[in-house]
Write a structure and sequence with these properties.
Strand order of the largest sheet: 1-6-7-8-3-13
Radius of gyration: 22 Å
Order of helices and strands: EEEHEEEEEHHEHHEEHHHEEEEH
Shape: globular
Largest sheet: 6 strands, mixed
Distance between the termini: 36 Å
Number of strands: 15
Number of helices: 9
Strand content: 15-25%
Length: about 450
Amino acid sequence: MASLARVKEAVVVAPSEPTPSCVLSLSAVDSQLFLRFTIEYLLVYPTRQNTNQALTATRVKAALAKALVPYYPLAGRVRPKPDGSSLEVVCRAQGAVFIEAVSDRAVSEFQHAPRYVTQWRKLLSLHVADVLKGAPPVVVQLTWLKDGGAALGVGFNHCVCDGIGSAEFLNYFAELAAGKHGLGEFRPKPVWDRHLMDPKNITPRQQNYPLFNKVPDLCGFMNRFTNERLCPTSVVFNKTYVTELKNLALSTSRLSSESGFTSFEVLSGHVWRSWARALNLPPNQILKLLFSVNVRQRVKPSLPGGYYGNAFVLGCAQSSVKDLTEKRLGYAAGLVRRAKERVGEEYVRGVVESVSGETKASPDSVGVLIVSQWSRLGLERVDFGMGRPVHVGPICSDRYCLFLPVNDDNDDDGGKNGGQGESVKVMVAVPTCAVDKYELLVNSPYS
């Protein structure tokens, strides 16, 4: 049964002060076809005694209006430019949407993965499927749970901001709601400057990017993910478990002990191998692992603090099923490391050129697992005066693989992870026929 949520109020919230009336260009990276969707966060807050729900909702709504003053493009509307070359934001203080609702769910129900992909859909009732049809770039829904806790669903038009930018906005918005500072105290101040992520060369350089290369579908890969029911999974890894993976990867690779793997490299490699093995794919099928790489400090000059536009490119690791599944973790982690190392100034500018202009290159979906690292965005710090969230994740768990922050006091991992700090929750939905094998493999590093 889907989560029931009854909407009490749904209103458009305009900036609380006058803001510039203008049309702002989005960058080539913002405008790429791959990003024309909504990022949807779900933050669940613990039960608190004597919470005045009406006062809290009023405070959150007022804070949203204040936050939209320095972030006024988030109150605009995104549209294609007349020549179709890229996108732009029409800023006329049109506003964001605020929804207040009540639900029959309890805080404890979010400790585990949803039973199906859309189970928590009603916690962000307004789902923007087409981000270019005049919808607000930001939708916020505050839902009161039956045990006194709260869920905050937030949708962002991905064309306007990336994960880091959206998390900076959320923390600012939350601090205003909690009364922690006023408008003039926010640092770093939001920066537009989208031209910094536009191509510098009119003629794209001739370079091969595996990210955009199509691979043959030898196994009906796309049919499996569109026609089969997907089952969400959730696995928590703590510092001890990740250290075990690092040691295993190092022992099965050619790296020296002085240059060990990062947590991201081993977790990505381990999840990718487990996913590939569970799907039972033909050995000659080519697979790709795509993951976002923050380029704020990888371009020259580096992007200014407060830049909240899309400032990432996708790294790409590639392997045949045979090599990925038969070789050990060190092989997979090594592929991820080398893919990260390729993302330098030249790579970034080449990708920017590829996604803009006439080519408008976009990643294919055949054989692809996409990993997004939400665990490093600061979402676990978003406090609206209701405490820090006990759960951070997506509204809908789908085939995107998310690395999520964990409130370690609330880990429910059967003792496997010991409740230590620096835990990471990995959520991904896999075809139902593969879910049992995936969960067995991802929980068994030595298999």
